[in-house]
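Milestone M4 deliverable, item 7.
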Amino acid sequence: MNNTQDRTTNYGYIIAASCFSIQAIGIGTYVAFGVFFSPLINEFGWPRATIAGASSTAFLIMGFLGILVGRLNDRIGPRKMMTITALFFGLGHFLMSRVGAVWQLYLFYGVFVGIGLSSIDVIALTTTARWFDKRRGLMTGIVKVGTGAGQLIFPLAASLLIAGFGWRVAYIVIGTAVALMLVVIAQFLKRDPSQLGLPTAPNDETKANVPFTGDIGLTLAEATRTRQFWTICATSLVIISCLMTVVVHIVTHAQDMAISAAQAAGVLSTVGGVSMGGRFLTGLSIDRIGSRKAMLLAMLFLLAGLLWLQVADRLWMLYIFSAIYGIAHGGFFTSISPMMAEFFGLKAHGALFGVVAFCGTVGGALGPIVAGRIFDVSGGYGPAFWLCFAMGVVGFVLIYSLKPIMAK
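Output delivered:
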């Protein structure tokens, strides 16, 4: 390997580490919102659907703005976009320490945090896809391990801060810390190797002398005329609806069983911990069997976990659920970006991934609200979890029906 290839590979690892950290901080902090449910309910008496609605609003805004962020990332690169959205992300969490009314909850968390979230997946995963070719699946899996690390660390950290200092101080600490960390990390981001004057994507010995442009594949307009694109969009909608319903409500579901707040947060953290292994193994499998088969395997774990959840009425049973579900959660989110590159190429990867992510956020926004409403009406989560199972079946059938449209 020549000196240029060494430089490309070495900076590629810096990119991977930066994107890993973005995923850990962004998704980990967002998932920790579930830990704040009980303190908000206790202080304000708001219905669960109302509180879940703030999380859903943030998720929906994330997806809508993700389309714009994806297009801007394709054109001007990730550093400026990540810096701007990081400031909104930190500010939203900081202002949550001052919340006293529902409209403030939706403005501070739903809008500000939503703007901050818009770059977390799109920038991290698109940048990784552009920097790695031969081992794209593996490196995407490693980056998505960051999400699991965040889900393991941040809910527990938030729980400890709440127990020690109260939920308002917890939000001050979290908001300040995440803004500083994300802004610093953003300064290391480069759109692709060409921004450093480097000619090739790392870890692709077969293209050692081929200039790297990232311009191979379908445009946004061309991709939207294919059945495959809309099939992936529909799958993202139904599956992420299931995934976010569980993430938002599993802590309060556990507490409804008289499980302590710390143990309930541990259930959510277990999802994050196990999902790290699921993400890494999924990344490896993508490079060997393709993203479609890897995603189908993740969906089988999701369906098995949701069936188990229907009978899980003790803490140890919830931990088993978390382990099964964690593999599914990590596997699905790891598969999406490589699937977009595999089916449509890299020419408009940011924009295409942004549209698919938006469809997912529509489902992810609606799912927790519907589940909260079902609980408010029925007094339990059972019907909501059966609805998640049904949507999981639909998602499995959709991905199973996919046929390739581009040669590798």
